[in-house]
Amino acid sequence: MLGFGTLTKKVFGTPNDRKIKATRPIIDKINALEPEFEALSDEGLKDKTTELSDRAKGGESLDDLLPEAFANCREAAKRALGLRAFDVQLMGGIFLHQGNISEMKTGEGKTLVATLPAYLNALTGKGVHIVTVNDYLAKRDAEWMGKVYGALGLTTGVIYPQQPEAEKRDAYRCDVTYATNNELGFDYLRDNMKSSLDEMAQRGHGFAIVDEVDSILIDEARTPLIISGPSQDRSELYVSVDRLIPDLVDDHFTIDEKTRNVTFTDEGNEWLEEQLKSRGLLPEEQNLYDPESTTIVHHVNQGLRAHKLFTRDKDYIVRDGDVVLIDEFTGRMMPGRRLSDGLHQAIEAKEGCNIQPENITLASVTFQNYFRLYEKLSGMTGTAVTEAAEFAEIYGLGVVEVPTNQPIARVDEDDAVYRTTAEKYDAVVETIREANTKGQPLLVGTTSIEKSELLSEMLTEAGIVHNVLNARQHEKEAQIIADAGKFGAVTIATNMAGRGTDIKLGGNVDFKIMEAIEADPEADPEEIRSRIEAEHAEDEKKVKEAGGLFVLATERHESRRIDNQLRGRSGRQGDPGRSAFFLSLEDDLMRIFGSERLDKVLSKLGMKEGEAIVHPWVNKSLERAQAKVEARNFDIRKQLLKYDDVMNEQRKVVFKQRLDIMKAEDLSAIVRDMRNEVIDDLVETYIPPKSYADQWDGEGLHAAAQEHLGIDVPVTDWVAEEGVDDEEITERLEKASDEFMAKKAAAFGPENMRSIEKQVLLQTIDTKWREHLLTLEHLRSVVGFRGYAQRDPLNEYKTEGFQLFEGMLDSLRTDVTKTLAQVRPLSEEEQAQMMAQMQQQRQMLDQQTEAATAGAAPNPEAAAEGFDENDPSTWGNPGRNAPCPCGSGKKFKHCHGRLQ
Ligand SMILES: Nc1ncnc2c1ncn2[C@@H]1O[C@H](COP(=O)(O)OP(=O)(O)OP(=O)(O)O)[C@@H](O)[C@H]1O
């Protein structure tokens, strides 16, 4: 019987059906244009691009241009790749252009789909970014689809790790740029650490098409991108905080062993405030709950955790003066691993070890916030519906299911559950043997490199010839995939065989042709081509008769999507195929999340050794377990985003200001405004409003003017004058400092002065912003501990985060004014010294950034590594006026530089 819901869907159509129907007239238009575009010459296609682009720039809407643009792009792909986009692909492209997520089943040709909206949107002249999950795909797609854009007269770029700066900038200036989410995010962060516009790599964020959108915007969204570097030495602080901890008594704090958190009681807080003040760790006028106290409170918390929650020889050991962590699951030492947020340093202080500098965040952004920078965002995936709610909530993206071109012919079997891992693997090997005997190609999915190798050993023992695709076999990836669909092939893979792994039944014909040409370079390539194509058709037929590709998975992943992706390597473009999951009660997912009920039911059903239970109920129960994990992860991400939103708003303000400063020719007005605000503040401090003249502190103001503005003016005389008020004094100070700065500008030359102002502004913003990031991190870890249990930590974080931000802007003004008041032309000697220092710093930062980008912990010693004062080839490019790296004490130009 049909439920009421199903019935109404049948009568009115689902919202998805309606969206699909709405594209029909557009697709008809594109199809009707086909003969007209077929008739165009190759040049004609490019001319069409120029025409469409002119019309777009002239104000015609992209929606109006869509049919012609899609028709042109389809024609170009036909000529360049021999692929004619199917109607469902056009449909997927329309949804992308409209800023949706197009859900298209695995193997439906999403790579080609992306070219349609990318081309249309690139007509505006703003670059389009196509985001892939890994570097291999970015490169593959840029090369593959680059032919289509080339035929249309557009340029294609690709971004990759450690790319030379100039090349990277060019790639971003292409019409369409392929890149991974990691590279895009890091480039954005790095750009906002640059000091001039032409050093910036990216040129804005117009339209992005995120391929495999759920993996990028959902799986990876939990880990923020971070560029870090070492901070200043704060060992003294750790030691002073550490001395305080043993004096705490039991009713000062509570400990929660489960969450590994500590909280101070009201009494504890009172005691702490007093102690911190008496030890000079907290200014007298400051309260423990002031936002300014965040950092010290954070360190006290970490000190307390170090003492009460971390036990020597259980959680860590002390070896050669280092604190080395112990893995709680394996009991092994983890040298080199460090606890974050100053906790490791707190333990070092507790053990009297050397305190190593902590790494601080120089810049950070979550993928969620990076992608929200784009004016228009869209995505593609094989499997989004499981996360539709999250896409709508966080990114405002709708998900539309696009029908498949051909009905899916793959048979997905119910899971087979065994009692033990050993029984499972026995069954896996047996099943592989059966399929292999009839020649059906197999892709066997495993969850780790170790497991893939273990299974490989078993197959070798069983005498089954096979290939292994895992990170160790990275180099041979393309070849292994090209062979995986051949008659009788067995390929064991980790989840490297996921998105983008395009396994062709009978093998990859292009590879076969290439091989044949290489084997016989004398022969006519065209002849080889037609011969191999004919042979390949036979191979393909044979494999189809054997049942197509069989995907056999040996474990379920935490996320349903990853499982579906693995299944989707089979049954592409309507091909026959089969998929099955073999599991055991000892699998991680079953142990951790499989409900006890499952266990009971299975034993009731009476599992016998070596026998599997296959029942749809088991599948449902497992999916529920997976859904639970997904829901938990979703909550974590939402929480992360809420906290990150606070920083995100501030980051946007700061990055925008930076950009404005970089763009500005002349910042003297801004700098003067800052100076005047500082003067207002000074006058207000020393000559309080509505106060009597005898309360005025002329001497204080005199000293402050000297310190902050660099001017020595007779303030004490001024305040003694008859009829002089605060306004008058403010004006005199403004005038005096204007004159002082004007003289300075004349000494430097106006042009130099403008550039000094710019550099000082940028550098001060950067320093302040970094300090602020650190304080925000600390704030985040302390809001939860605050004694006010009834307050919402997130709200606390928002309010205090805002106050800290305002405080940062205030101190920014003061610092810029002070620094500019102090700058003076340098002697040649000083200049040389400074240049050398700056260069060293820059090199160090670059190296650290690279290290952080590569995912490795930045190693402060790395900068010195490789440098050898006896070997000029290790010196890089020393400045001509810098001290010679050989250590002679002479300038480079007068020493080794002379040799060049
Ligand atoms: N219009 C077309 N006509 C014929 N073949 C096509 C067409 N579009 C794509 N294909 C082929 O379909 C295969 C799958 O393409 P692609 O790898 O882009 O799929 P996908 O949707 O990205 O799959 P997955 O996400 O599972 O990797 C490729 O071999 C491609 O050449």
Automatic annotation (TrEMBL):
Q: Which UniProt keywords apply?
A: ATP-binding, Cell inner membrane, Cell membrane, Cytoplasm, Membrane, Metal-binding, Nucleotide-binding, Protein transport, Translocase, Translocation, Transport, Zinc
Identify the gene encoding this protein: secA
Q: How does it assemble?
A: Monomer and homodimer. Part of the essential Sec protein translocation apparatus which comprises SecA, SecYEG and auxiliary proteins SecDF-YajC and YidC.
Subcellular location per the Swiss-Prot or TrEMBL entry: Cell membrane; Cytoplasm
Supply one GO BP term: protein transport by the Sec complex
Q: Give the superkingdom in one word.
A: Bacteria
Annotated binding of ATP, by residue:
89, 107-111, 502
Xref: InterPro entries: Helicase_ATP-bd, Helicase_C-like, P-loop_NTPase, SEC_C_motif, SecA, SecA_CS, SecA_DEAD, SecA_motor_DEAD
Asked if the record carries the keyword Glycosyltransferase, the reply is no
- Tell me the function of this protein: Part of the Sec protein translocase complex. Interacts with the SecYEG preprotein conducting channel. Has a central role in coupling the hydrolysis of ATP to the transfer of proteins into and across the cell membrane, serving both as a receptor for the preprotein-SecB complex and as an ATP-driven molecular motor driving the stepwise translocation of polypeptide chains across the membrane.
Ranges where the Helicase C-terminal domain occurs: 424-622
Name the principal localization, coarsely classed: membrane
Could you tell me which residue ranges the SecA family profile domain spans? 5-614
List each copy of the Helicase ATP-binding domain by range. Answer: 91-249
Biased composition regions of type Basic residues, renumbered to the chain:
890-900
Q: Which organism is it from?
A: Aquicoccus porphyridii
Which terms in the GO cellular component ontology are assigned? Answer: cell envelope Sec protein transport complex; cytosol; plasma membrane
Kind of enzyme, top EC level? translocase
* Name the UniProt record assigns to this protein: Protein translocase subunit SecA
Report which reactions are catalysed by this protein. ATP + H2O + cellular proteinSide 1 = ADP + phosphate + cellular proteinSide 2
Give the family per the record: Belongs to the SecA family.
**GO terms, molecular function:** ATP binding; metal ion binding; protein-exporting ATPase activity
